[in-house]
Amino acid sequence: MQKNENNQTCRKVAVVTGANRGIGAQVSRQLARQGIHVIVTARQLPQAQQLVDEIVSEGGSAEGFCLEVSSPQNAHALCEYLRQHHGRLDILVNNAGIAVDQWVSGFDVSLDVMAQTFNTNVTGVLNCCQQLMPLMREGGYGRVVNVSTELASLTGMELGSTVAYRTSKAALNALTKLLSLELKDEPGILINAACPGWVKTDLGGDQAPRTVAEGADTIVWLATLPAGAGSGGLYRDREPYPW
Ligand SMILES: NC(=O)c1ccc[n+]([C@@H]2O[C@H](COP(=O)([O-])OP(=O)(O)OC[C@H]3O[C@@H](n4cnc5c(N)ncnc54)[C@H](OP(=O)(O)O)[C@@H]3O)[C@@H](O)[C@H]2O)c1
């Protein structure tokens, strides 16, 4: 990896959470194809390494790192690693997520499932932002993409239960907006949320109409927005989507 005189990696560096499968894996592939060095993170390092090998065999640049998103120790270790080995962080894709209460009524969902879901989908994202964004802010440039869902849009809210998942992603949307407001005097850093649509993955199931490539498209687009683009928005198919 080429470095400048400050021991900084020359190409952009991206961290993708939950990158060992599904949409996160595809986002990693697509970012690597744009010449970005991708830190493929996963709870199980060997699973990240499989994708790293694939990306490198295609001519891309990537490495694996173990990250449970709700662990401050893991996220701190990743930040220290980035600081030491790359001196920068340009892109953070908060993709890791769980939906364990699909079709469960709000009157039946257990409080344990609520807590587990919020711990990953909301607190986990906040943890990664708190631990990793200081390095990004030092560089004055950054793109953060929080992977949400249209199922959390209050405007289009319809019956469908899945209350833990949908309320957690609504909270993630609010978190996206609030963090972007805190960064209003740092125009180099953009933080947005993306709806990938209904995508064929372990989470989305076999009936989903979209491929992972289609699901990753808006996320990658937001992760590589040009200077001066918007911050604090929710997007689907590269268009603003109502909260
Ligand atoms: N698929 C859809 O239709 C759809 C629609 C809207 C939004 N989304 C969102 O898109 C994102 C990716 O979903 P997907 O469909 O690709 O799901 P997926 O195939 O189930 O993959 C989820 C990924 O998140 C990781 N993960 C879960 N909990 C984690 C934790 N605590 N720490 C670190 N990693 C964790 C998983 O790792 P392990 O392998 O270790 O479990 C896996 O890599 C999610 O945020 C999801 O809510 C998906």
Brief overview, please?
This protein is α/β, with parallel strands linked by helices. The chain has 6 helices and 8 strands.
List the defining traits of the structure above.
NADP; SDR_fam; binds NADP nicotinamide-adenine-dinucleotide phosphate; single chain; 243 residues; 6 helices; 41% helix; alpha/beta
Low-confidence stretches: none
The CATH superfamily bears the name NAD(P)-binding Rossmann-like Domain
What class would the helix/strand composition place it in? Answer: alpha/beta
Which value, in Å, is the CA radius of gyration?
17 Å
Q: What's the overall average pLDDT, rounded?
A: 96
Global shape:
globular
Tell me the major beta sheet.
8 strands, mixed
Q: What is the third-level CATH name, the topology? A: Rossmann fold
Describe the protein in words.
It contains six helices and eight strands, in the order E-H-E-H-E-H-E-H-E-H-E-H-E-E. It is α/β, with parallel strands linked by helices and 243 residues long. The chain has one domain (13-240): NAD(P)-binding Rossmann-like Domain (Rossmann fold). Strands 3-2-1-4-5-6-7-8 form an eight-stranded mixed β-sheet, with helices on both faces. Helix 3 (72-85) packs parallel to helix 4. The chain binds NADP nicotinamide-adenine-dinucleotide phosphate. InterPro entries: CBR1-like (IPR045313), NAD(P)-bd_dom_sf (IPR036291), SDR_fam (IPR002347). GO terms for molecular function: oxidoreductase activity, acting on the CH-OH group of donors, NAD or NADP as acceptor. Keywords: NADP, Oxidoreductase.
